[in-house]
């Protein structure tokens, strides 16, 4: 992965409405159209063009396959790989990254695939380092400590 091809890709994963939001009669303010996200909040529309979009019906596995899986080869080749989730409290970042038993997050999926690739290359030595941090209110917390 030569440095000329390294780039930042931005994708959006739109979560479904929570049960509480549904019970209160809430409606989604997001419309996905290809790689575009339209946000209609209180009659004000904003349109964003991204590198990819994933709707509320898509699982974390879909996000992994479509946006993260291609980063694995770079990591195996020795390049640093970063995956970041941004959003407001309650927007689904933790579920996307960590997941649940029914819908594993992209971190467990990536970890399983990384170590599977390492096992398959038993003639090479690998050193894996991982950071899992949360930045909230300008305070960084090491989530692995």
From TrEMBL:
GO terms for molecular function: ATP binding; microtubule binding; microtubule motor activity. It is found in: Cytoplasm, Cytoskeleton. InterPro entries: Kinesin-like_fam, Kinesin_motor_dom, Kinesin_motor_dom_sf, P-loop_NTPase. It holds the Pfam family Kinesin. Residues 7-145 form the Kinesin motor domain. The keyword Transmembrane helix does not apply. GO terms for biological process: microtubule-based movement. ATP binds at residues 87-94. The keyword ATP-binding applies. GO terms for cellular component: cytoskeleton. Keywords: ATP-binding, Coiled coil, Cytoplasm, Cytoskeleton, Motor protein, Nucleotide-binding. Belongs to the TRAFAC class myosin-kinesin ATPase superfamily. Kinesin family. This is Kinesin motor domain-containing protein. It comes from Elysia chlorotica (Eastern emerald elysia).
């Amino acid at each position: 992965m030569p440095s000329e091809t390294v780039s930042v890709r931005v994708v959006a994963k739109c979560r479904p409405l929570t049960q509480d939001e549904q019970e209160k009669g809430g409606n989604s303010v997001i419309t996905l159209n290809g790689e575009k996200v339209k946000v209609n909040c209180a009659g004000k529309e904003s349109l964003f063009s991204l590198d990819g979009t994933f709707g509320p019906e898509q699982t974390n596995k879909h996000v992994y396959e479509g946006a993260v899986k291609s980063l694995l080869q770079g990591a195996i080749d020795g390049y640093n790989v970063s995956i970041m989730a941004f959003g407001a409290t309650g927007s689904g970042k933790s579920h996307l990254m960590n997941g649940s038993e029914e819908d594993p997050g992209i971190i467990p999926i990536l970890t399983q695939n990384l170590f599977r690739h390492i096992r398959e290359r038993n003639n090479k030595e690998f050193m894996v380092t991982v950071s899992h941090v949360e930045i909230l209110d300008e305070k960084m917390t090491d989530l692995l400590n």
